[in-house]
Write the structure tokens for this entry.
Amino acid sequence: MENQTEEIYSVWALPPEDVRARIKRVMSALRSEFGGPEFEPHITVVGAIRLSPDNAIRMLRSASAALSSYTARVTSVSRGSFFYQCVYLLIEPTPEVVETSAHCCNGFGYRSSTGYMPHLSLLYQDLTDEEKEKARSRVEELDKEICELRFKISELALYKTDTEDKSLKSWEKVEVCHLEIKREV
């Protein structure tokens, strides 16, 4: 179909179901205390890029076909300086994590103005530094072992993510690709 309206998409690495459930409990507790919209636990692989739906799906399938599942390791709970990086889990930038993002960014023609910082956001919100620090330390109280979390990434998803919509009501999952399971040696 020609002349499709372009939308803003992102590519997310999705944690497995059990890890998603664990992280969602923490996210829910943070939202009840600090507000903010609900969203799926994910590690952004490709940031917001404007594409037609057909191109976005084709690019995701093509990029995913060349990738294998990999392990993500949480190293710390951190806080950032803007709405979409309010409080998050920092993910160790192992070669697999970094190369997966580089491969996908390349396939999508995405150029980031900043270096890749793999992370899994827990809260989107505009808070003062004091509130962010309170929310950050709250995460460690809610899940004492969260910084030891390791999990397999075997799904990449294409999400429609209009970053102007801070309610996230328009955000939706478009496509999921399963990565080939890599045999542990």
